[in-house]
Design brief:
The protein is of the alpha+beta class. The chain has 17 helices and 18 strands. Strands 11, 12, 13, 14, 15, 16, 17 and 18 form an 8-stranded antiparallel beta sheet that branches. Strands 5, 6, 7, 8, 9 and 10 form a 6-stranded antiparallel beta sheet that branches. It has a 4-stranded mixed beta sheet with strand order 1-2-4-3, sandwiched between helices.
Length: 479
């Protein structure tokens, strides 16, 4: 690549550092082209503080990642680990000079079927992992995101998942000074990574940290057998009824996943809510028994309908189309994970808040829908906004050729975008008033400010101990 093609980034990155990065990862894995840097320095939201990275480096191993951390440390350059970048909380977006550590070359998969665990590179996509496990009749115990056609195992481990991260049983983490720390039973000399809990749970320190404590390079996952499944769907007159059905099935142990979809202010606003239930059993007969129990316990207001939605979600669990609307609209959600007892009052408060904003939203052509979901003793509530607006380069990068052609060339809608962000902030505050927690904290959801004094001091001490110069994902977990 010529100096002209590299753009202004070369001047900002010390030449000795650039040479060392190339010696570590290979010239082909050090990216300096201006447009590529801008793409790798963004997520699904335009943040006013975001800045292009100095470089993108794609290490090929844990050892190379450690050497990269040591080299960057000599020059005081921050590091930001990145998977697919499909975030909406700013956790992987630089606010100043930084090197993006692109994990996509870390994509190894090592399956230990007999011992029910797998060790995978942080850049492995969830879809690739699912395909590798299928011949063994296994799947991760960790719930997988629908965006897993591109999103990575390391990304989920860093950003967090609404259902938790209990399926992760060990890590390899590169600390700011280049130390490689392994956690779980795999931390022992010559030990296998089959168990998470061996002494203090060091794995938990790094889960959901948004990369602020270290760069995850390898993740060990618990595996479970694929079991016979059954599906059921129900129509409910309103959100309160659907929300009442969800915890009843979960508390009875009848469902492994429940999703409710509700209309908002767009076309079909008077349509009923629908609840979609996924069940499993150890045998086909056991699965049939669970299905019968769900039908018996659905309540009088829930009417059974065809279970096409959960069947299709199971048949095609990964999709990237969902991060824009059906006609290419911009999409922006906000979520809260709530105790079962708080979910009904929270949903009602959010519905009132959106009703108060109805005129503004209609004026700008902004519509919203509802998704409620759970795989355990909690409810995730997620209002989703859609509006016509120019798509970002990251949107266009991940869309198929056909959809890229269809959806490019949209007009900028800055006023609508600003309104969505303001209403989204109001919804977040309302969720927090109902005891919500969040995944994917990044720079958007509060963390430090929400902690009581002792916990806040502990978090600050961990950060200082692991990253005394504050070079790992600056700005994350600080709100």
């Amino acid at each position: 690549m010529t100096p002209a093609a590299r753009g202004n980034a070369v001047a900002a990155l010390p030449g000795d550092c650039l040479a060392e990065l190339a010696a570590i990862a290979g010239h082909e894995n050090v990216i300096l082209e201006t447009r590529a840097l801008a793409l790798a320095s963004s997520d699904l939201i335009d943040w006013p503080w975001q800045r292009p990275a100095l470089a993108v480096v794609k290490p090929r191993s844990t050892e190379e990642t450690a050497r990269l951390a040591r080299a960057a440390g000599l020059y005081g350059i921050p590091l930001i680990a990145r998977g697919a970048g499909l975030s909406y909380s700013g956790g992987g977006v630089p606010g100043g000079a930084a090197i993006i550590v692109d994990t996509t070359n870390l994509a190894t998969i090592d399956i230990h079927a007999d011992d029910r665990h797998a060790q995978v590179g942080a850049g492995t996509s969830w879809e690739a992992l699912a395909q590798a496990l299928a011949p063994h009749g296994l799947k991760p115990a960790q719930p997988m995101p629908i965006s897993g056609v591109h999103t990575t195992v390391g990304g989920a481990a860093s950003q967090g998942m609404p259902g938790g991260l209990d399926g992760i049983i060990g890590l390899a983490v590169v600390l700011a000074d280049g130390t490689v720390a392994r956690t779980g039973s795999g931390a022992r000399r010559h030990g296998s990574a089959f168990q998470r809990y061996w002494g203090p749970d060091l794995t938990g320190v790094f889960l959901g940290d948004c990369g602020a404590y270290g760069i995850k390079t390898e993740i060990s996952l618990r595996l479970v057998p694929v079991r016979p499944l059954r599906f059921a769907s129900f129509s409910c007159p309103d959100g309160a009824t659907g929300l009442g059905l969800m915890p009843r099935l979960l508390q009875a142990g009848l469902a492994v996943r429940v999703v409710a979809n509700g209309p908002g202010n767009g076309p079909g606003a008077d349509a009923p809510w629908t609840v979609h239930v996924t069940m499993e059993g150890a045998t086909e007969d056991a699965a049939d028994c669970v299905l019968a129990a769900v039908r018996a316990d659905r309540g009088q207001q829930a009417t059974e309908i065809d279970a096409d939605v959960p069947r299709r979600l199971h048949a095609r669990p990964f999709s990237i189309r969902g991060f824009v609307g059906l006609e290419g609209e911009r999409w922006l959600p906000v979520h809260g994970v709530l105790p079962l007892s708080q979910a009904p009052s929270c949903l009602a408060a959010l519905q009132r808040l959106l009703a108060d904003h109805a005129a503004e939203l209609d004026t700008h052509g902004i519509r919203y829908t509802w998704t409620l979901s759970s795989t355990g003793p909690y409810i995730t509530i997620e209002p989703m906004f859609y509006w016509n607006d120019a798509l970002t380069p990251l949107h266009l990068y991940y869309l198929s050729d056909r959809h890229r052609e269809r959806f490019s060339g949209r007009h900028d809608a800055a006023e609508a975008r600003a309104l969505v962000r303001r209403v989204r902030d109001d919804l977040r505050l309302a969720m927090d008033a109902h005891d919500a927690v969040h995944a994917q904290l990044g720079r958007y959801f509060p963390y430090r400010s929400a902690l009581e004094d002792g916990a806040g001091q502990l978090a600050a001490r961990i950060k200082r101990a692991l990253d005394p110069d504050g070079r790992m994902h600056p700005g994350t977990l600080q709100a």
